[in-house]
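Sharing a chain and its predicted structure for anyone who wants a worked example. Both blocks are below, sequence first, C-alpha cells second.
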Amino acid sequence: MSITEFVGKKIRYYRKNKRKTLEELSSVSGLTVNYLSMIEKGQANATLMKLEPIIYALEINWTDIIPRKHDEEKK
C-alpha cells in the first residue's frame, strides 16, 4: 500500500468514526467534496497544506494519519 493510500484510508476511518459526511468535512476544511473523496481513495497526493485543514476539522493529530514503522512491517 502506498503512503497516499494509507493516509487516505486513515482519513476515511477517522471521518467515519466521528460520524462526519464528506460534505461536513468539506465545509469545515474548505476543500471540495470531490478532492476529499479522491484523497480518501488514494487517488490524490495531498500536500501538507491540504492535509492540515483536514486534520484540524477531524480534531486528530498528524501522527494519527502518518504510517509508523510497525505499519510498514505489516505489509
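Comments welcome. The CA atoms of residues 1 and 14 lie 18 Å apart.
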